[in-house]
Amino acid sequence: MWYLTVAVVLVAVLGLVNLVFTLGVVRRLREHTELLSGQQAKQPEAMLEGGGVPAEFRSTSTDGRVFTRAELRPMTLVAFVSPACDLCEEQIPTLLDRARHMPGGPEHVWVVVVGKGPETEPYAERFREVATVFIEPGNGDLPLAFKINGYPAFGLVDERGEVTNSTFGIARLDLPVAR
Question: Does the record carry Transmembrane helix as a key word (predicted)?
Fold first, then answer.
């Protein structure tokens, strides 16, 4: 009968050890969940963060005018789009609408079509009535000056030449309203 008592005690000890290990695993899973949630909440920046100043650049618009950082007017919406980007295509109607209502008109809306090849010209033509349009490769002066991290990217440059806010979605960008 003593071996039955030893067996019951042994099973009870194994059950307690198993419970301690299980509680440890649950605690570690909670820690990992909190870490992953914190990483997912942090979105990558579309371009320069708020307060960032674009680097010096020199770029020619599609109508032949040369622009540098000094010609960047206060309260300018800057948009970077690409014909190779499906998300850009979805954002174009909203971009065109907001560009039409931007105070100062086309001089205060810069659209940079990023890409190479024959598809860039017709793509850029869509913005000519409402914006100053540039066509540049991904390693061009404007994408590098604004530190573009993906497309589409939208930002607003204030009177000090700083990016006030930037985003991947034009609807999320706070823009001034024309009166």
Answer: yes
Domain total in the chain: 2
**Distance between CA atoms of 175 and 165, rounded to whole angstroms?**
10
Question: What is the residue type of 165?
Answer: N
Residues 35, 74 share a domain: no
Task: Let me know how long the chain is.
Answer: 179
> Quick check: bond before 152 cis, omega within 30?
yes
Take residue 116 and report the two structure tokens written for it: 């190479």
Q: Chain-centre distance of CA 154, in angstroms?
A: 8
What is the bridge-based pairing of β-strands 109-114 and 163-167? unpaired
Query: What's the whole-model pTM score?
Result: 0.75
Tokens encoding 141: 């002066």
Q: Can you give the residue range of the structural domain that contains 102?
A: 58-172
CB 102 within 8 A of CB 111: no
